[in-house]
Queue: 4 jobs
Job 1
Amino acid sequence: MEQRSFYWTFLLYHVCLLWSCQGLSVRFKTQQALCVIKGQSFNLRAQIDLLDGESLTRVTWDHAAKNSGKNHTVAEFPHRTSDEKVTLEEQGAVLKFRGYQPADSGVYTITVINQAGQRRSAQQTVREYLAVNHVSVMVNVSHSVLHCMEAWGSEPTFTWLHEKVVVTEEVGRVSADGRSLHVSGMFCGHFTCVVRNKLGYSSSTYTADVCEQDNRHTTPVVVCFLLLLAIIAACLAFMVWRRHQRNRRERLWESYENTL
Ligand SMILES: *[C@@H]1O[C@H](CO)[C@@H](O)[C@H](O)[C@H]1NC(C)=O
Ligand SMILES: *[C@@H]1O[C@H](CO)[C@@H](O)[C@H](O)[C@H]1NC(C)=O
C-alpha cells in the first residue's frame, strides 16, 4: 500500500516536471527597477527559453505608464513597432529605447506566444534616475550616532567627513550601508555626510561642540614653560641675594679692619 502511494507520488512529480519543462518561459535577469537618466537610451533584455522544435509566433511589448496607468503596446515582433523611439532585436527578446523621458517610466511587459498558442509574460519596471536631493543629518546624541537621510535620488552612495577629511577608524565606524556613523572618538566638530550618484552630489553638515583637543595639548606646554620661567627667576633672585650678602659681609669686614 505504502509502496503504491510512493509510486504515484513519484509519477505525479515527473509528470509535473515534464509539464513545466515543456512550457515556454520568459524572464528578466533582475527584478529590480531599471533607473534611466532623462534623454538617455536603455535596453530591456528578456531571457526566452524554448524547447527543441518549439518556436515563437509572436512577441509583444506593452508599456503601462506609471501615473496614468494607460497600458499600450509599444512593439511587436515580427509585425510592427508603434513607437519610433523603440526597436526590437534578437527575435523580439531585446527592446532598445532611445531618448527616455519621464513619461516612459512604468511597467514594461513582454508577452511571448508559441506555435501551440501558449503564452508567457514577464515584467520589468523602468524609473527615472533622480538626482540626490534634500540631504540631512540626524543625530542620536545619547548613542553618538549620526544618520544621513536623503529624500530621493537613485543609487545613492554615502561618504562621511569629519572636519572635511574622510573619517578614519579613530573618528568612528560607518555602517555597512554607509548611512550611519557611529562616533567612537570625541563627539565634537563638524560631521558632513556627502551623498553621490551619477548626476552629482549633495551634502549636509552637523556641528557638534567645539573640539577642545588643541587646548588640551597646549595647556601642559604653557604650564611647563611658566614653571621653568619661575624657576629661572627664583635662581636669579637667589644669586642676586647671595652677591648682595657677600658684598655686605666684605664691607663689614673692611670697616672692622679699619677700626682696628
Ligand atoms: C498591460 O497589458 C498587457 C496585455 O494585456 C498585460 O499583459 C500587462 O500585464 C499589462 N500591464 C500592466 C502593468 O497592467
Ligand atoms: C538612539 O539609538 C538607540 C539605539 O539605536 C535607540 O534605542 C534610541 O531610541 C535612539 N534615540 C533616539 C532619540 O532616536
Job 2
Amino acid sequence: MFEDELDEFTRKHLRRQLKTVNSATAPTITIDGKPVIQLASNNYLGLANHPEVKEAAIQTIQHYGVGSGASRLISGTQTPHHGLETALAHFKATEAALTFGTGYSANTGIIPTLVGSQDLILADRLCHASLIDGCRISQATLRVFHHNDTTHLKQLLEKRSGAQKTLIITEGVFSMDGDIPPLPEIVNLASDFQATLLVDDAHGTGIMGKHGRGIVEHFEIDPNVLIQMGTLSKALGTIGGYVVGSRSLIDYLINTSRSFIYTTAPPSSMAAAAQAAINIIQSDPDRRTRLWQNRDQLYQGLKAMGFQLTNTQSPILPIILSDPQLAVSMSTRLLEHGIYIPAIRPPTVPKGTSRLRLTVTSEHTSAQIETALTALDLIRKELGVKG
Ligand SMILES: *Cc1c(COP(=O)(O)O)cnc(C)c1O
C-alpha cells in the first residue's frame, strides 16, 4: 500500500527515519548507549534541563497533577497558565499574551482569525510549515514574496485589488537559514499599506535583543505595531506556543481561535516551567553571552574551512550541500565520529538546498565545538566537499 511511495523516498535519498535518544537534549546526547556531541537542538540556553526549570515543573505536578482535565474555556485554565501569560506579556512588553499547546497549533489557530477567504496574505518564501498551514486553513489568497525581499513585497502590496484586507507574515529568525528579516522596512510597508504584520519569533525569543526579548527588541521596534507569536519549545526549553499583543487581540483569539478553543489545556507544569525559563532569561544574561561566544567560535571555524554558509545572524548555522545524498552521508559519517548533526532535505527546505543544520547552545564547551570542527574538516576532505 505505502511501500511504493516509501521506495520512491528512499530512491531520492529523501526517506526520513526516527532516531531514538536515551538522554536529555543538547549539548550532549546518548544514541544507542553511545554519548555524542549534539549540534541539533533548539535548546539554545540549556533551559530544557536547567534545575530550576525542572523543579518548577515537578512542584507544579505535585500540586496540580499531570493533565489539565479540559480545554482552557471549560475548566482547564489553572493558575500557572495565568502566571505564564502575565510573564510573557511583561517580557514582550505587550498588554497581554495567550498560550497554545504548541507553536504549530498557535499558527494554525491565529492566522484564520486574522484573515478569511476574501483577504490576502503575503508571506516570506521561507516561512515555516505551520505558518503555511495556518494560511491554507484561513482560505485567504496566499502570495509568497522572495526571501527577505522588501522590493518584491512592496510590488505585491501595490498590485493588490482595492481595499483587500492584507496580512504580512515573516519570521524573527528563519528556522532553516538562521538569517533575519529587514523587519523595520517591513513594519513601514505594513503601515503604509494598512496591512497587519505577524512575526513568528520562534527562534528569536530568548536569544535576540539586548535582554533576549526577541527580534522586536533586536530592532528596537514598538511591539504595538505588530502581532508576535513564538514557541516555548526552543530557547525556553519547554513546550507550547504563544501570541502577544493588545488585550483586545487576546480576547478576540480566546473567542475565535479554534486551536485554542477545541483542545485540552497544556499541562500547567509546562506553563510553570516556561515561566521559570523566562525568569532565568531575565536574571542570567551570561547564558546569552556564552551562546554568542560559542556561536562565533563555530561560525568562524566553518567559515575558515570554506563551507557554503547562509547569511546567518543566529546560532543556526547551515552548511549548504545541495545534494541530499551528500548531506546524509556527511551526517552519517559525523555520527560515527561522535557528532550528531542532522541532514535537512526537501520538503523542509527548497529543492537543491539540502544541508547540514548546526545549532549551538550556551552549554557546549569550547572543546566540544573544536572536536566537532575537526571531525567536519576530516569528513569534508574524505567526501570531497568543495569549499
Ligand atoms: C519550531 C517552529 C514552530 C513550531 O513550534 P512548536 O512549538 O515546535 O510546534 C513554528 N514556527 C517556527 C518558525 C518554528 O521554527
Job 3
Amino acid sequence: MNWNEFAGWGRKVADWAQDYHMTVGDRPVRAQTAPGDMLNALPSTPPEQGEGMDEIFADFEKSVMPGITHWQHPRFFAYFSSNAAAPSVLAEFLTAAIAPQCMLWQTSPAATEMETRMMDWLRQSLGLPEVFQGVIQDSASSATLAAVLTMRERALNWQGNQQGLAGQPTLRIYCSSEVHTSVDRAIWVAGIGQANLIRVPVAGDWRGMDPAALDAAITADKAAGHLPAGVILCVGGTGTGATDPIADCIAIAAKHGLYTHVDAAWAGSAMICPEFRDYWPGIEDADSIVFNPHKWLGVQFDCSAHFLKNANDLVRTLAISPEYLKTHGHDGIINYSEWSVPLGRRFRALKIWFLIRTYGLEGLRNRIRNHIAWSRQLHDKLCAEPDFESVTPPMWSLWTFRYVPEGAGDLDALNLDLVNRINDDGRIYLTQTRVDGKLVIRFQAGTFETTEGDVMMAHDVICDIARSLS
Ligand SMILES: *Cc1c(COP(=O)(O)O)cnc(C)c1O
C-alpha cells in the first residue's frame, strides 16, 4: 500500500468508527460467538500474494466484528469500563502515524516533556502534593511490578539485581486478601515467591486491611528473621471495591521502615472529584501510587499513571545505561525508560492532553459523578425488590447483589445461571465474583456514553430474566 492511498482509507476508517460508536448500543454487549468461530474464518496459511484493502476491510466487518465484546457499549456494566473517548482515539491515530519511540529524552523530546507535564496535571487533578513525580506505564501490573522490585532492592540495600536472592534473608511483602492478581504476579516475577506475600485479614464495610493485624504480621516476621520489604495497599479492589484504611496502614509501614505502594487502578480516576478523596485519607504519605486513566477517566488503552514520592528509588532499581543509549550533553533530562521495565515506550501523553483539553476537568468530573449517582440509584431500586439482596454496598459506582427468591436451593448455581442468561440476552453485560465464598453478581457503571436510562434499564433486564428462571 502506498501512502498516497492511505488518506482515503483513513477517512473510511474514521467514518466507520463514528458510525460504530453512534450505533454500538444496538449491538449485543458481549460477543455472541462460539469458541473457534474466528479461528475457522481465517485461512490456516498466510497469503503468498498481497490482497486489496477492499477485501481486507470487508472481511474485518464480516468476520471480526461479530466476535467483539463491545467495551464502549453504553450498557457495559462488567469488570471495569475501559474507555476510549473520541479525542483520545484521535490522539492515538496521530501517535500511530508518527510512531515515535519515547525511551529517551532525545528519541522524542516533546513526548518526554509532555509526559512530565501531563503527569503533573494528573497529580494536581487528584489533589496529590507537589513532591510526587510521575511516569506513564503500560499497565497497572507493570507499575506494581516496578514498585515490588523497588521494595526488594531497597530492602536488600540495592544488591538484589547484582547478586540475586540466593543467600539473602526471606523478603516479605504484605497486602490484604482483596488485592488484584497483578500483585501475585509481581511477587512471582520479582523472585520473592507466593509464600512470602502475606495476606492480612480485612474488616468492616470497606473490606479494608486491619492495621493491627498488619503490625502483628510484620512484628512476627521480624522476630522469625525474615526481611519485611513493603506493603501493597488497595483503593477500590476489583471484586467489590475493597479499600484499605490508607493513613493507618501507612503509619504501620512507616513505623517499620517499609515502602508502600497503593493500587488505585480503577478508583483513582474518581479522585478528580474532591468529595471522593475521603476514601484515601493520608494518601500523601504513600511512596508509590498507580491509577489507570485508561479505565474510568476516558483515555484510550493503554495508559497507566504511576506517581512516586522519590523517583530516585525507582530509577536506582531499573536504570541500565549502556553506552549506545547515553544522551550526551543533556544533563538533568529525564529518560523515562529508566523508570519502567520495558525499554521501548509509546507516546501515551498525547492522548491525555487531547482528552483533558477537550472536556476540561469539570467535564470529566460530571461524568464520574453521574455514573456514581445512577449506579447508587439502581442499587437502591434493585435491592428494594423482595427477591434481591445487596451483598456489598456501593463503593464509588461498584456494588454486588444476589438473587434470593424464596425457596431457592443452590443460590450460587442460580446466580451463575442468571448472569450467564443476562449476558446471552445481550442488552446488558455483567460479571460475577465471590464474597466470603458466596457467588455474587457485580454491577459497575463507568462507560463514557452511559446514560441514566441505560443504567436504569439494567433493573428491568435483571428482574425480567431472574423471574423467568424456573
Ligand atoms: C484493572 C486493575 C488492575 C490491572 O490493571 P492493568 O492495567 O490491566 O494491569 C490492577 N488492580 C486493580 C485494582 C484493577 O482494577
Job 4
Amino acid sequence: MHHFEHRNGTLFAEGVSVKELAERFGTPLYVYSTATLTRHFQAFDSAFASMEHLTCYSVKANSNLHVLRLLASLGAGMDIVSGGELYRALLAGVPAERIVYSGVGKKPAEIRQALDAGILMFNVESVQELLRINEVARDMGKTAQVSFRINPDVDPKTHPYISTGLKKNKFGLNIDNALEAYALARDLPAVEPVGIDCHIGSQLTTIEPFLEALDKLLIFYDKLKGLNLNIRYLDLGGGLGINYNEEEPPHPTEFGAALTKALGHLPLKLILEPGRVIVGNAGILVTEVLYTKQTPSKNFVIVDAAMNDLLRPSLYGSFHRVDEVVPQGRPAQDVDVVGPICESGDFLAKDRLLPEVRQGERLAVYSAGAYGFTMSSNYNTRPRAAEILVDGEQAIVARRRETFESLVAQEL
Ligand SMILES: *Cc1c(COP(=O)(O)O)cnc(C)c1O
C-alpha cells in the first residue's frame, strides 16, 4: 500500500501533483512519500509489538538524511554497513544504542568510530574481524558488544546476487565452526558476545526460509548454553520482499506472527533489519521522454533517467513497473525503456507493453525507493538526481540535484 495514485487524470504523490514536481525540480527526480514511509515502518514495527524487539532500518536501502530522520522520529534503530552510514545515522539523530553494525570488511578506523559513538553491537563476520575489534576496543579501554553473523546455509530463493545465507556466500561464519568463535570471544578481554545474527538475503517472498534459518539458529543457541555466555539478542536481519510486479510477499503482520510464535517464549530481544520493505514502494523515479525510435526489431523509448540513476534493472534484471505520469490513452506498444548511457545494459524496462508516449511526456518508475538513489553513480559524468520528500501537500528538496561543479570539485 502506497500513496502514489492517479487523480483527475494525473499522478499524485500524496497531495502533490507529480507533473508539477517534475516541472519545478526537473528530471530525473526521485519522489518519496512520508505517509508511505510512516505507514510501512509502523506496520512492520507493530507486527512485533508482543515481544521485546528493536527494528533497525537498513540504511543502505535509502540513506537520505530526511528519510533517516523521519524513521528515527518513529523510533527506528539503524543497521549500518560502513563508517559513512554511521555518520549519517548519528547526524539524523539516531541514538547510538539503537545502531547495529554489519558487513564483512569493517576497517579499524570504522570500528573506532563505532566504539566512540557507543553503538549497540557489531555483527561480526569472521574470526579475524573479531580479533581486530578486540584490539581496537582494548586500545580504547572499551568493551565491544558483539554478535556473530551465522551463515545457516539456507536457500532464500531469490536472485543469486542478493542471496547471502548460502555456504558459498562470503557472509558470516559457517554454522559448524561458530561455536569455537564464541568460545574465543568469551576469552578475549575487550569483546563481549551478546547475540546471534543472521541475514540470509533480500527480496524474500515467502516466510519459510526465515523459519528454516531461525530453526538452525535456535539449535545453535541451545549449543551455546554450554559456554556460559550472556546471549540476549537474536538478530534475524532483513530481507522481507515487496511487490514489484506479481510477487505476493507475506504481509509484515504475518511475518511478525510467525517469528513471535517461534521466539516469543525465549529470553531474547529480537532485532530486525528491514530495508526494502520500508522504503521500496515509498519512492518513484520520474523521468522525461527524450526521444522515441523504431528499429526493425524494437521500439525504443529513450528517457532522461539511466542505469546510473536506477541500477537494479541492469544489475539484477529487476522488474520495475513503468507508467505514464499523465495517461494519454493511446494504444499500447511493445517497447524497451532505455537511458542515454553508452551501454546496452542501460535499460529501465525491457519488452514492456506501454501506451505510446511522446517526446516531453513523463514516466514514473515505481518501487524505486529502495536501492535506487543509494546505488546511483556519476557514470558518463551525469549529475545524480534530486530527491524530493512529499508530506501531504508539502514537498521539500531532500537532496539537491548535483551540478557539474560538484562533480569535479574533488578533482580540482
Ligand atoms: C542489505 C541488508 C539488510 C536489508 O535487506 P532488505 O532486503 O533491504 O530488507 C539487512 N541486513 C543486512 C546485514 C544487509 O546487508
